[in-house]
């Protein structure tokens, strides 16, 4: 479930973002309430509320007073844009470092990527 | 329920169990009181519950608790020895006391919980297994619906499914009836996700009081070349270190600044999080210390 | 009031049942004895003057040693509990004195039917006061031992004096040493001494129990 090594509210927020990115949570879809979330994952409701508040602040979710929290219409696009921004720093650079560390020439890596592209991006 | 403790000291003869402790709980949260065996958890809670006359002050919502009817009404402490359950009494009779003496007692809920934990109402309290006796304590604590409810080592002897049933019941009832709940334990890993705030005590003193999630972000494990680690950790609060060959890992407590993160990258140091449980172990006295 | 009511509700019926059981038991024993020899003493008086006071003493211990910590654990102050318990001892002693008196009446009927002889017994008031003082003395000793551990031993000589004064008016309960004339001199005024003993026992209980910590029970 959640590990004890980093703030749980951040783990919850990341999980919901991942669900939005993957499409498991769609635009204007209602997310679980704080209490439902707390009982389901056996976490403190204040922690769940903090995660939801962060997502509201980041405009991933929006509140309907008295009803609950919903995924905002542009959440997915926004998260995708953020993901693109971080992609090279968080995914490509470490991959390059790893390739160099185990002695794979970058040219080989590029060739592999080109193969993917020629196969239609698979 | 707000709790204010000021200069609290508890002594048993020559032994000082709580040494000049001060803190406040703002209330309506689930607090974890963490400490090693003999660190003073039970003594502290006993003073909070008016079980003994405090030296120093203990106030609940601004009222001194000891022998104060208005404040005492609001408190329930269940210690692991189950003070409210006489060994020779049947469980049903034990629950009767609560129903008779507590204004806030919910007897239907008590019976429901007893059923959940499979405690026979006709069984004598002294004939219950340790786990069931702990569960009976949980029943008394939760059914009291007290604005300040304290559970001391309530998981003792419970098997894993029972402990999870306990956590679920606790969480559910807390959400239905928000109140101040203090749970003491040294089994942190299982319980920590339920806690909003954590108090760590050691040797009768308060080591720290912090939001659980903040605490989780406070510890960093720095791993790398021994001399680089030493350079990096100079001036930081180092809770513990271990070395393997030329590699060294140091546990650092406290948030790291951006420039420190940059420096760590320059030195090729690996930074990782520390589990709450490990933080606790290192914040309290190390084994083989003066204890 | 809640404490007083709950003590009454949970303990009075139990005590009455013990008394009834004791009465039946004594009757059976008396009939058994009558097979071998003539009956010359009241069996019920042995119970009321000797055994019952120890039962009341034990009840006093039970109330402080067992019930007080439970009351505190359920959010009641010691003061509230002691107020309820003090009133309860009066009701309990009254109940037991009435039951004792009913016992004597019933026993008297049976004895005259069987043509047995009973020795004399004390007045209901004397029994009431004896029960009252024994019960509160039990509370006092329990409070002393619970609060001071082995140091509570000091309560024993005080307790002995307190309970001894109540036995004067009750035949078959033992005589007071040293001051045999004084009670005779005082006559019914001796009851006032018993009341004083009750008040002293109660005051000592309050003084000790007001600050008493709730200790961990060893399991």
Tell me about this structure.
Chain A is mostly helical and 122 residues long. Chain A folds into two domains: 8-73, Winged helix-like DNA-binding domain superfamily/Winged helix DNA-binding domain (Arc Repressor Mutant, subunit A, Orthogonal Bundle), CATH 1.10.10; 86-118, no CATH class. In chain A, 62% of the residues lie in helices and 7% in strands. Chain A has five helices and two strands, in the order H-H-H-E-E-H-H. Chain A has helices at 8-22, 34-41, 45-57, 75-101, 106-118; strands at residues 61-64, 68-71. Chain A has a two-stranded antiparallel sheet with strand order 1-2. In chain A, a hairpin with a 3-residue loop joins strand 1 and strand 2. In chain A, helix 1 (8-22) packs across helix 3 (45-57) and helix 2 crosses helix 3 (45-57). The two termini of chain A are 31 Å apart. Chain B has two domains: 3-214, P-loop containing nucleotide triphosphate hydrolases (Rossmann fold, 3-Layer(aba) Sandwich), CATH 3.40.50.300; 218-283, Alpha-Beta Plaits (2-Layer Sandwich), CATH 3.30.70.2020. In chain B, helix 4 (107-116) runs antiparallel to helix 5 (130-143). Chain B is elongated. With 219 residues, chain C is mainly alpha-helical. Chain C has one domain (2-209). In chain C, 74% of the residues lie in helices and 0% in strands. Chain C contains seven helices and no strands. Chain C has helices at residues 2-34, 43-73, 78-114, 124-148, 155-164, 181-186, 190-209. The longest helix of chain C has 37 residues, at 78-114. Chain C is globular and about 55 Å long. The two termini of chain C are 32 Å apart. The model of chain C has no long low-confidence stretch (mean pLDDT 87). Chains in contact: A-B, B-C. At the A-B interface, helix 1, helix 2 and helix 3 of A face helix 6 and helix 8 of B.
Labels describing this entry:
heterotrimer; A: 122 residues; mainly alpha; Arc Repressor Mutant, subunit A; 5 helices; 2 strands; C: 219 residues; transmembrane helix (chain C); transmembrane (chain C); membrane (chain C); P-loop_NTPase (chain B)
Give a brief rundown of this model.
Chain A is mostly helical and 122 residues long. Chain A contains five helices and two strands; from the N terminus they run αααββαα. Chain B has helices at residues 41-48, 69-72, 91-101, 107-116, 130-143, 160-176, 188-191, 212-216, 226-233, 258-267, 276-283; strands at 3-12, 15-25, 30-34, 55-60, 63-64, 75-78, 148-152, 180-185, 197-202, 205-211, 219-225, 237-244, 247-253, 270-273.
């Amino acid at each position: 479930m959640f590990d004890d090594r980093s703030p749980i509210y951040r783990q919850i927020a990341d999980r919901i973002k991942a669900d939005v990115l993957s499409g498991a949570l769609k635009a204007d879809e209602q997310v679980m309430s704080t209490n439902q979330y707390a009982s389901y994952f056996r976490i403190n409701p204040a922690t769940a509320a903090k995660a939801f508040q962060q997502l509201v602040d980041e405009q991933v979710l929006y509140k309907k007073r008295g009803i609950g929290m919903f995924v905002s219409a542009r959440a997915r696009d926004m998260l995708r844009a953020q993901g693109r921004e971080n992609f090279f720093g968080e995914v490509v650079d470490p991959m390059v470092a790893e390739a160099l560390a185990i002695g794979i020439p970058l040219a080989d890596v590029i060739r592999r990527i080109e193969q993917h592209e020629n196969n239609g991006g698979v | 329920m707000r709790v204010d403790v000021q200069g609290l000291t508890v002594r048993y003869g020559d032994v000082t169990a709580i040494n000049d402790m001060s803190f406040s709980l703002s209330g309506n949260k689930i607090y974890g009181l963490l400490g090693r065996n003999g660190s003073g958890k039970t003594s502290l809670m006993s003073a909070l519950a008016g079980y003994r006359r405090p030296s120093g002050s203990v106030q609940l919502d601004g009222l001194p608790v000891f022998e104060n009817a208005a404040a005492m009404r609001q408190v329930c402490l269940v210690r692991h020895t189950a003070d409210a359950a006489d060994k020779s009494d049947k469980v049903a009779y034990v629950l009767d006391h609560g129903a008779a003496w507590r204004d806030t007692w919910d007897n239907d809920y008590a019976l429901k919980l007893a059923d959940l934990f499979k405690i026979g109402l006709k069984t004598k309290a002294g004939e219950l297994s340790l786990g069931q006796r702990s569960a009976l304590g949980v029943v008394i604590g939760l059914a009291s619906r007290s604005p300040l409810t304290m559970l001391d080592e309530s998981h003792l002897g419970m098997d894993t499914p029972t402990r999870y049933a306990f956590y679920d019941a606790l969480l559910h009832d807390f959400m239905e009836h928000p109140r101040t709940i203090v749970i003491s334990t040294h089994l942190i890993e299982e319980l920590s996700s339920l806690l909003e705030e954590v108090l760590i005590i050691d040797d009768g003193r308060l080591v720290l009081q912090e939001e659980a999630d903040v605490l989780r972000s406070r510890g960093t494990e720095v791993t790398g070349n021994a001399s680089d680690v030493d350079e990096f950790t100079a001036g930081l609060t180092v809770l513990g270190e271990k070395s393997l060959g030329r590699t060294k890992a140091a546990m650092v407590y406290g948030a790291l600044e951006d420039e420190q993160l940059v420096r760590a990258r320059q030195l090729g140091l690996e930074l990782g999080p520390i589990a709450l449980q490990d933080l606790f172990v290192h914040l309290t006295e190390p084994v083989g210390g003066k204890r | 009031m809640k404490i007083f009511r709950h003590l009454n509700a949970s303990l009075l019926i139990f005590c009455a049942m013990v008394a009834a059981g004791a009465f039946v038991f004594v009757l059976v024993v008396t009939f058994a004895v009558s097979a071998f020899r003539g009956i010359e003493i009241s069996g019920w008086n042995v119970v009321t003057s000797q055994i019952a006071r120890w039962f009341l003493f034990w009840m006093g211990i039970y109330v402080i040693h067992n019930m007080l910590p439970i009351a505190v654990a359920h959010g009641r102050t010691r003061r509230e509990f002691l107020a309820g318990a003090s009133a309860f001892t009066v009701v309990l002693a009254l109940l037991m004195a009435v039951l004792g008196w009913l016992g004597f009446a019933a026993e008297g009927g049976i004895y005259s039917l069987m043509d047995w002889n009973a020795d004399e017994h004390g007045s209901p008031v004397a029994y009431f006061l004896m029960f009252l003082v024994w019960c509160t003395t039990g509370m006092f000793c329990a409070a002393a031992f619970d609060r001071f551990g082995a140091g509570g031993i000091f309560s024993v000589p005080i307790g002995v004096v307190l309970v001894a004064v109540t036995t004067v008016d009750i035949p078959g309960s033992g005589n007071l040493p040293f001051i045999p004339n004084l009670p005779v001199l005082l006559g019914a005024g001796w009851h006032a001494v018993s009341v004083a003993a009750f008040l002293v026992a109660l005051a000592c209980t309050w003084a000790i129990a007001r600050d008493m910590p709730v200790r961990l029970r060893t399991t």
